[in-house]
Automatic annotation (TrEMBL):
Protein name: 3beta-hydroxysteroid 3-dehydrogenase
InterPro entries cross-referenced by the UniProt entry: Ergosterol_Biosynth_ERG27 (IPR051593), NAD(P)-bd_dom_sf (IPR036291), SDR_fam (IPR002347)
Pathway(s) per entry: Steroid biosynthesis; zymosterol biosynthesis; zymosterol from lanosterol: step 5/6
EC number(s) per entry: 1.1.1.270
Broad enzyme group: oxidoreductase
GO terms, molecular function: 3-beta-hydroxysteroid 3-dehydrogenase (NADP+) activity
Amino acid sequence: MARARPSWDPAHLPDQSGRTFLVTGANRGLGYFAAEQLARAGGHVILSGRHPNRLAAAHDALEARVAGASVETLLLDVTNPGSIRAASASLRGGIFQRGRLDGVLMNAGIVHTPRQREVTRDGRELVISTNALGHFVLGAELLVTLAKSAARDWTPRLVWLGSMSTRLGSYEPTDLQLDTGYAAWKAYVQSKVVVQALGLEADARLREAGVPVASVIAHPGYSIGGRTAIVTGVNEPTPWKRFRDGLQAPFAQSKERGAWALVRALIDPSVQGGDYLGPRFLTHGAPVRQTPSRTSSDPEVRRRVWEECERLTRSEWPFARAARVGR
């Protein structure tokens, strides 16, 4: 008697033919492998990143590894509001193949944060700008485009990249730019608390406004390059890194497996706005629904973070317009 497949099987994804997905930070790591999995499922994937040569390498690698893949590239630097708005305008203008957008995986980010506080060209603290503020602007720019793609059998999605680190320290975000008391670990964890708070607050505001777009959060557990397949131009760990990362096998996983939760959040028909997904054993395993940290789910923290991001980015999400076009 054949064993029944689990309710969600990363090796047998539902067909995504006819759907288009944007993946930020798609030239390396989780973003690349999520894009590859989406392409294998038949989706059209727009790889975005800030380095043309790295994007080209990822594009070539994906086409070589996935027969018949439908993929193209888009220059997008999430630390640069001008770049975000230019890329979004290209998408809205319909210059890309499908003329629709069914989901955005907001993956780009900094994991290995600088020891000293750094700022972007517009004066924003680098970590919060990369991990949270840029995607806040991107969500505002693409919300109407996503709402236009809503259908009876499909709700377009925004997927935010959370982190298990939010369970290791609260770091309530009262100083988003860390003007005082910067520390590398604090900058990372606080940025991920902010991301998760934004994802949950977006869900509440989308529901209230009647916008047919879902906001979902997913985290990859502890996914490392040394346990990941070698892909030329994308993932090329040194022998020392492969040895060192191999010692962490009992509690670590590959980037391919880390992407499982992100992809499920983006395409599983049973996933709803406000869901939070991650590996079954926190650091590794099949993707399952989980509970976000108390800090990032606190309604007052969510409201305060949202308003501060509006102030810092000078961006407001067009909820009313998105609701009208999505009807």
